[in-house]
Every structure is written in C-alpha cells, then in structure tokens.
Design brief:
Shape: globular
Number of helices: 5
Strand order of the largest sheet: 2-1-3
Number of strands: 3
Structural class: mainly alpha
Strand content: under 5%
Mean pLDDT: 85
Distance between the termini: 125 Å
C-alpha cells in the first residue's frame, strides 16, 4: 500500500458516520393542529309581547245621566278643534262650561269612580280656562283629556260619536277625544296635524 492510499479508509469511515447521524428521509407524521371550535350559536331572546291593556270596569248609568254628561264632551270638541287649528279662541269659555257641567251632574251620580272622575274633570277644566299661551293650553288640555278618556272608557254610551287618538310625540298625556273620524292632533296643530293613530278605550 502506498502512503497516499492510507487516508481513504478514514474518509469512508467518517462519511459513514455522518450518514448515520443524519435524519432519515422519513415523511413528517406530525399531526396538524386541531381545527378551532365553531363559534357558539347565539339564539335571539324571544320577543316580548306588547302588554295587553287592562280592561276598564264598565259603569252603567241611567240614560238621563248619560244625556246630562254629553255636553261635557261637546264642549271638549270645541277645545279640540281650536287647538288643532292653532288658535285659543273659545277655549276658556268651553273649559268653564265643562267645569260647570261636571259640577252640576256630580250630585246625581251614585258611582264613586264616576264621581271622582267628574271632580277631576272640573278641577282640570278650570285650570285650563286660566291658561293663555297655546303651549300651556295644550299641556293643560292633555291633563283634562285623561279623565275624559277614562270616563268615556268606563261608560260605553259616552263613546258614541267619539274617537280616541294617541300621539307618541306629545308631551304629558298623549291621548285625546274628538268627534271627527280623521285624526287632527291638538297637541301640535298644523306642525304635525296627522301625527298619531287611533287608540284603545283605556285611560
């Protein structure tokens, strides 16, 4: 063996050792990460049903008393027409006529609920008669309308020839009574004359 041929076995041994230490060409079997969980399904809460209006106890009055109460609503029609027409003309006399009619009928009424409503109508009508500015009159008219609607709701005979409407934009009490079937908003007048909708017979 010549001196130059001796390193070959050493090189071969080193190459074999290096190959033995190298990673084998095996396929990568590392599992893929698990897919993320699907987002939780959100269920909308059930819709809350609109509250059912509480029925108003019906009060039966003698026909004579019903006839005696009708002028209250006739004078109220005059106030409604004035405010819906953006005027205060005739409001004070009509309000005083309502107060006097309520006062005159009260002694004839035996039902305590009706008596209380008539007392409230008288008080609020007299207050309405002393207001001058139309904005104050409209608020006071809403306060008067509340016992008027309650009285007509309790005495079905008083609803004849009347409609009850409601405006969600109105300040204070939002209902009112009127004789005309077409809505005419007394709380806003020409500014929003048709704002609102026909309502139910409850206070």
């Amino acid at each position: 063996m010549t001196p130059t041929s001796r390193p070959l076995p050493i090189l071969m041994i080193l190459a074999t050792a290096l190959l033995a230490c190298a990673e084998p060409p095996w396929p990568d079997v590392t599992p893929d990460p698990a897919p993320p969980d699907p987002p939780a399904r959100v269920t909308a809460p059930p819709a809350t049903p609109a509250p059912t209006p509480t029925p108003v106890p019906t009060v039966e009055l003698d026909p004579e008393l019903v006839t005696a109460l009708r002028p209250i609503f006739t004078h109220n029609d005059a106030i409604h027409r004035a405010l819906a027409g953006d005027t205060t003309d005739g409001v004070a006399p009509a309000a005083l006529a309502i107060a006097d009619a309520a006062l005159g009928v009260r002694p004839q009424v035996k039902d305590a609920t009706t008596q209380a409503l008539l007392a409230e109508i008288e008080t609020r009508a007299r207050h309405l008669a002393h207001d001058a500015a139309i904005d104050a009159l409209r608020l006071a008219y809403g306060e008067l309308s509340k016992p008027l609607v309650a009285l007509a709701s309790a005495v079905p005979a008083l609803r004849e020839g009347r409609h009850v409407f409601e405006c969600p934009m109105a300040k204070g009490y939002q209902k009112w009574l009127q004789a005309e079937p077409s809505l005419r908003n007394p709380y806003f007048g020409a500014k929003m004359l048709t704002c609102g909708e026909e309502s139910v017979w409850t206070p």
